[in-house]
Design a protein that fits this description.
With about 325 residues, the chain is α/β, with parallel strands linked by helices. The protein contains 10 helices and 13 strands. The structure holds zinc ion.
């Protein structure tokens, strides 16, 4: 069976996997990234890609697909800019091609995850699909009519940075106020918990274990009925509903899949957000978008990146699901 190397590059972590054309991961290597300079990141990538290439038997490998944070020139694989690494015009694709003498395709990490989930996860069989990964931020991607929406300069799908609370929201990492990701990511849930804290002077939610405080702890406390956590959860769900209804209004997808740490809440989250999403959906027929939890988890990025390499790129034509 044909195989390719899928690479998922994050701000603090790199992983590479040998992935078959049926989406199955054969082997996988990981390494933490502590130094974000280009040379150090390349060294970390070498450490995970070399053993994967050895496993994959070079002559059977279609190439290397890399999902990287930031805006990418899809033709060359140059990272135009990446806030995570503070990179500008970094020749990631060219350097990897030179190192490994294999075809290398680079695309945005969230777009790769979208294509992985679309092709082998919950999106399989749909034509109009959106993936949203609710983690530190919100990563996303849009598939319309069976093709990934790429945009004029590969910028389509930056759903996390549409503003939903421009006057009273939290400050986003991009500099704007009240972006969808500032309000409705895992970090957003944590911010909501701090924002409502003055109303709960006796709450121990935020002092219990500040070293391990994360969105999951807030979500679990909400599920357990903690009043402070529930107030934060309610505001978080309200903001999530606004963003989801906006997506429905823009692209009327058949399905929106939610991934990332917060989405492990499953039906507790879907059940809470659906009424608000429907209520805010006006000109599009209500109930025509299924809201589900993504099922490939962290593998979506690796599988999507490898599949991009197997199909020779991330252009719409190469990504159409067979009818
Ligand atoms: Zn933003």
């Amino acid at each position: 069976m044909r195989k390719a190397i899928g690479v998922d590059l994050g701000g603090s972590h790199a992983s590479a996997a040998v992935v078959q054309e049926d989406g199955k991961i054969v082997s996988q290597y990981e390494q933490d990234i502590v130094d974000r300079s280009f040379d150090a990141v390349i060294a970390a990538l070498e450490n995970v890609i070399r053993p994967a290439i050895r496993d994959g038997k070079e002559n059977e490998l279609a190439g290397i697909g890399v999902g990287s944070p930031g805006n990418i020139d899809l033709t060359t694989g140059t990272v135009i800019y990446s806030p995570n690494f503070l990179w500008q015009n970094i020749p990631l694709g060219p350097r990897l091609r030179q190192l490994f003498q294999l075809p290398v395709h680079v695309a945005n990490d969230a777009r790769c995850a979208t294509l992985g989930e679309y092709t082998f996860g919950m999106g399989k069989g749909t034509k109009d699909f959106v993936l949203l990964t609710l983690g530190t931020g919100i990563g996303g991607g849009i598939v319309a009519g069976g093709s990934l929406v790429i945009g004029n300069r590969a910028g389509a799908g930056e759903i996390g940075h549409h503003q939903i609370r421009p006057t009273d929201g939290f400050i986003c990492g991009c500099g704007k106020i009240g972006c969808f990701e500032a309000q409705a990511s895992g970090t957003g849930l944590l911010r909501h918990a701090f924002a409502v804290a003055p109303s709960f002077p006796k709450s121990t939610l935020l002092v219990k274990s500040p070293d391990k405080l994360g969105s999951k702890a807030i979500r679990r406390a909400a599920q357990a009925g903690d009043a402070h956590a529930l107030a934060a959860w309610k505001n978080f769900i309200g903001d999530l509903a606004i963003g989801l209804a906006n997506i429905v209004t823009f692209v009327n997808p058949e399905m929106i899949a939610l991934g990332g740490g917060v989405s492990s809440a499953g039906d507790f989250m879907i059940g809470a957000v659906l009424p608000g999403m429907d209520e805010l959906t006006t000109m599009v027929p209500r109930g025509t978008t299924r809201l589900v939890i993504a099922n490939l988890g962290n593998d979506a990025g690796l599988v999507g990146a490898a599949t991009m390499a197997l199909r020779g790129g991330i252009t719409p034509a190469s990504w159409q699901n067979s009818p």
